[in-house]
Each structure stands twice: as structure tokens, then as C-alpha cells.
Amino acid sequence: MFKDRKESVALFGGSFDPPHFGHKAIVKEALRVLDIERLIIIPTFLNPFKLGSHASPVKRLSMSKEIFKEFQKVTIDSYEVDRKEATQTANTLKYFQQIHSVKYIIIGADNLGTIDKWYNFKWLNSQITWVIATRGGYGLDTSKLRDFKILKVEADISSTEIRKGNKIYMNLNKRIDRIVTILDEKKAEEIEVFDLKDIDYISERVVLATSLGGKHSLSLSEHLKDKLKPLGEEFLHIDESEDWVVIDMGDILVHIMSSDYRQKYSLEEFLTELSSRKFNEA
Fold first, then answer.
1. Residue 43: is the preceding peptide bond cis (ω within 30°)?
2. Which of 90, 120, 143, 221 has the fewest CB within 10 Å, making it most exposed?
3. Which CA distances in Å does 251 have to 63, 67, 106, 195, 254?
4. How far, in whole angstroms, is CA 15 from its chain's centroid?
């Protein structure tokens, strides 16, 4: 008699351009506090409120699958990417309501100011409970929402504020040189630095390096921590595996990848295109 029972889910849509630690923190907290059987992440083909994205839809879908793969109750769905057009949230909800019992839609607090401008908002507002992920610098005016929950996400730290409060951030180039030197001394290969200052990205610099495989990625990460923490560097978040280590230092993001993973995800192509826009738009 339970054959037709639908799985209870929350939907979390967005550009994920790229997916990052803030998104991960939202997912972790949502899984902890929401009464759901599954959380469905839906990368957009194109955000209806944007003219384009930095990475292609397929690339963003692939990166999302990689960064969220540790969560057993999370599914990355290609519905909007497969449609190959900007898809309104109301239409996405209608699609998933055919398959699941959709209880929640997760959004960031930065969406609250314009949420009533969303297509078919009145209907949308009547269907689900909104889950609002807190974000530094944005208020929580929920007066337009019928029903909502607040998701307190502590990982949403402003790198700008960190830089203001810590003098170490004043000489960015020197810090980058230090990171590159440590990686080079410990046999990292193909080290590249991408300048993303003034670009809408989660860090000002990205360091990309190739490990020798095995536990070398983890070893390089440990060397960076051992050398840089005594100098005052802050390691806000680290994701580690033998194939891909990501270190968030606020205004610097370090990717240490095995050769196979670097070739598979072509991250340098994405970062090269992204950094080139800084000059094309100047």
C-alpha cells in the first residue's frame, strides 16, 4: 500500500558557478535540520535573472556532482541543464511535484529583496516552505513569505571583512609567492596562479597545482598548513581526498589535484576564461 508514496524532498537550485564551500555548508545544515528524505540540487542552465555564466552548464553540473558526492541523501539533477534554456523556479517545482513530495525550496537571504518578482510567485509561495540560508550583509525580511524556516549557516564568512581585520591580507602577492614556493619545494607540478580580483568570484586568487598522485595531495596540504599557520594564515575550510584537495584561505583558494582529475575537470580552462574577462571588460 506504500507503492505510491512520494519521497519527501527539498529543492536547492542555483547557478553553482562554481559550487563552493558556502553551498556545502548550506547542504550540511539543511540535511541536519529539515525533515526530508532527500535534498535535490538543481544547477541552472541559465539563471533567469542573469545574462550568462562563467562556466558552461555541463561543467557546473559536473563540478556539482564532484563537490557534493559525499552526501548520501543528496542528488544532483540535470533537469534544468537538459532543458537548455532558462527555467523558472515555478516550472521546476511543478516538474518535481510529479515525482516527489516537495516540502521546501532553499534560497539565500540575498534573494529575499526581489523574491516577489519571481515568475508565478503567488502560486509558488502557496506550495512550499521557504528555507532561507543566512548570508553576511543581507537582512531577513520574510514579510512576503507565507511560511519559512531560517537556516543559520556559519560558513558564510565575508572574505572582505577578514581582510579588513587582519594585516596579513595586505600583501597578497607575497603570500601567493610563499604558497607557490612551498608547493614547488614539495614536488608539486604545473603550478598556476589566476588573478580574479574585480571578478565576481569567491576569491581574489586561485592557485592550481598537480600532485604526484596517491597521498601526495594530502602531504602538500599538510605542508602548507605547517608552514603558513605559524605566519598567521587562516585556513577557513579544507576538503581533502587523494585526488583533489581544496583549501579556502578567504581571498586565496588552493586546488591540489591529481593529474587524472586535473585533466578530467579542466579547471584551468574555466579559470583562464574567467580571468580573461577581467581584461576584456576593463
1. no
2. 143
3. 21, 20, 26, 11, 10
4. 9
- For 40, the enclosing helix (H) or strand (E) is strand 38-43
Mean pLDDT in the chain? 86
Residue owning grid cell 519521497 = 7
Q: CB of 60 within 8 A of CB of 53? A: yes
**Three cell numbers, residue 135:** 548570508
Strands 74-76 and 8-14: unpaired
**What integer is the mean pLDDT of 136-147?**
88
* pLDDT at 138 (0 to 100): 79
pLDDT for 163 equals: 37
Residue 101, number of CB atoms within 10 A of its CB: 13
pTM of model > 0.90: no
The yes-or-no verdict on residue 108 having pLDDT over 70 is: yes
In the numeric block, the cell 516527489 is attached to 100
CATH numbers and ranges of domains, the chain? 8-151 (3.40.50.620), 160-280 (3.30.460.10)
pLDDT at position 162, please? 36
Give the burial string for 226-237 (b: 16+ CB within 10 Å, else e).
Answer: ebbeeeebeeeb
Does residue 24 contact residue 106 with C-beta atoms inside 8 Å?
no
67-107 pLDDT per residue, tens: 899 999 999 999 999 999 889 999 999 999 999 999 999 99
Coil/strand/helix, residue 74: strand
